[in-house]
Design goal:
With 486 residues, this protein is of the alpha+beta class. The protein is 48% helix and 18% strand. The protein has 3 domains: 1-109 and 141-244, no CATH class; 247-342, Signal transduction histidine kinase, dimerisation/phosphotransfer (DHp) domain (Helix Hairpins, Orthogonal Bundle), CATH 1.10.287.130; 344-483, Histidine kinase-like ATPase, C-terminal domain (Heat Shock Protein 90). The protein has 9 helices and 13 strands.
């Protein structure tokens, strides 16, 4: 189970299903509440209509036994007097709850002697007593005889009529009669339609929700699987590359323009860079082994000869081979540190002073420098200048010129000779490791071919550049550009 939900596909499916489920439950709840509210409102409107119809008949002095709303066809009806006594009710009403009284048997009050005369005198028209029946009971409205209250109160309850029990929405309306005082009419409208509609809707939702969630989960599973299929292809190919150690292989790139296609392209670019780096390291190791083999073999031969014939020992040659071996080992160590990403020290270095210092003692070298301070490793920058001077000295006829100047935010150090120069086609190749342009030149004179490669690597690590060009005197010109300090 943990492995299943550990996949992106399963998590995406589960997440989408949960989001849709929450949205559907919230929407369904809102729909049910709205539906219930609307249906209860319609039932309340129907109950109020029935109550006002009965109240209108009472205002028109219709006797209780002649009221059309008491037949029970439109729902239960109760009529209460000012004392909350039941004076009339629907036929066959057996039980009722939710109104002001649970009584179902009317108990009409007996009019006092002379009431009819009093009513006749009221109708005859003494206006001073026209409001004598008004009170603040019930709704609190002041009503004239024959007037129906504007306010309606609602409640929910149940009733049993002719053996049928149902839930009802009751409406209560007050009416001021001419001869019976203030009466309250309770009329009910059945809630069966509301219950049926809500129950049906709930059943449909309970059945449809799982089905819809199943469809959402299935579609999400298929779509996610299709979208992630290229990722699986990339993973399998990367696993095969790791197992075979064949960096020449590449992962498949989808013919789309989405994130997965960009991931595949980036992966292939990374593999290409890794292949180049590994190939460079292999070539470096092979070239280093080849360069180390010569001085070691020469030194071993001289030592074996000296062991057999001490008088034939070439001590100077042995020392030269040892020094050459030492320099080569130092160059290889520096290149290894540069390849490992070693950052140069951030100390201020005056290129003019450094140029004069490195040029001291070298014949045929002139320095024309203005102060230019950069930030970096004094030792590594000195190594760059020494390598450039050694290379220029080997190819110069008579003189080597070192210049230092400022150009905007850059410090430019130039080393020019008056030799034959470097062909334009070789001006980049000479910075490759173990490259010698003169194949006939001896290793003792030409070195191992690492000086210019080290110089460029150091320049790049210091945020600068090292290029080769043509000197004004016709020889080679090497320019080192470094950002000025600050």
């Amino acid at each position: 189970m943990s492995r299943l939900f550990g996949s992106v596909r399963a998590r995406a499916t589960l997440g989408a299903t949960l989001v849709v489920a929450v949205a559907l439950v919230a929407a369904g709840t809102a729909v049910l509440l709205s539906l219930r509210s609307n249906l209860i409102g319609e039932a309340g409107t129907q109950a109020e209509r029935s109550a006002r119809a009965v109240a209108s008949e009472l205002a028109a002095r219709v006797p209780y036994d002649k009221l059309s709303g008491l037949d029970g066809d439109d729902g239960p009806v109760q009529i209460l007097d000012e004392d909350r006594k039941l004076v009339a009710a629907s036929e066959d009403l057996r039980r009722i709850t939710g109104t002001a009284t649970t009584e179902v048997t009317p108990q009409p009050s007996t009019p006092a002697p002379g009431d009819d005369d009093a009513d006749d005198s009221d109708d005859a028209g003494d206006g001073d007593d026209s409001d004598g029946s008004e009170d603040s009971d019930g709704s609190g409205e002041s009503l004239a005889p024959g007037e129906i209250a504007r306010e309606t109160t609602f409640s929910n309850g149940s009733a049993t009529i002719d053996g049928d029990a149902e839930d009802y929405r009751f409406a209560a309306v007050e009416v001021e009669t001419h001869d019976r005082g203030r009466l309250t009419v309770h009329a009910g409208a059945p809630l069966a339609a509301e219950h049926s509609a809500v129950s049906t809707s709930l059943t449909v939702m309970l059945i449809g929700l799982p089905m819809l969630l199943g469809v959402v989960a299935g579609v999400t599973w298929l779509v996610t699987g299709r979208a992630l299929r290229p990722v699986e292809g990339i993973r399998r190919e990367m696993a095969a590359i790791t197992a075979s150690e064949d960096l020449a292989r590449r992962v498949p790139e989808p013919a789309t323009h989405d994130e997965i296609a960009r991931l595949a392209r980036t992966t292939n670019e990374t593999l290409a860079a890794l292949e180049t780096s590994v190939e460079r390291q292999r070539r470096f190791v092979a070239d280093a082994s080849h360069e180390l083999r010569s001085p070691i073999a020469s030194l071993r031969t001289q030592l074996e000869v000296a062991a057999a014939h001490p008088e034939l020992l070439d001590l100077d040659g042995a020392v030269e081979d040892t020094v050459r071996l030492q320099h080569l080992a130092a160059d290889l160590l520096l290149l290894a540190r540069l390849d490992a990403g070693e950052r140069p020290a951030g100390t201020p270095v005056d290129l003019a002073a450094l140029a004069r210092e490195v040029a001291t003692g070298r014949t045929g070298v002139t320095v024309d420098a203005e102060p230019a301070e950069v930030t970096g490793s004094r030792g590594q920058l000195g190594r760059v200048l020494a390598n450039l001077l050694d290379n220029a000295r080997r190819h110069a006829r008579e003189r080597v010129t070192v210049t230092v100047r400022r150009e905007g935010t850059w410090a430019v150090l130039g080393v020019a000779d008056d030799g034959d120069g470097v062909a334009e086609a070789d001006r980049e190749r000479i910075f490759e490791r173990f490259v010698r342009l003169d194949a006939a030149r001896s290793r003792d004179d030409g070195g191992a071919g690492l000086g210019l490669a080290i110089a460029r690597d150091v320049a790049v690590r210091h945020g600068g550049t090292l290029t080769a060009g043509a000197a004004p005197a016709g020889g080679a010109l090497f320019e080192l550009r470094l950002p000025l300090a600050g």
